[in-house]
Amino acid sequence: MACTTILVGKKASYDGSTMIARNDDSPSGAYMPKKFVVIHPEDQPKVYESVISHVKIELPENPMRYTAMPNAVKGKESGRQAG
Length: 83
Prior knowledge:
Elements: E1 5-8, E2 19-22, E3 37-39, E4 47-49, E5 56-58, E6 66-68
Antiparallel strand pairs: 1-2, 3-6, 4-5
């Protein structure tokens, strides 16, 4: 199974709002408990570094708050899926 993303633009929604939705599927069928977290601007890094390639990218000075659903099991944390 692949993850699915749904994007709805202003002209496609009833009230002109934009919507983003994403799920986190498991190709192996083993699902991990998730937790809902809110990432505030002051808690965000100023530089992103890729785990695999180690490339570094400077991030905007004024980030926005966002939500995410990382794995809830200690030691099994992964990306912030389904945010």
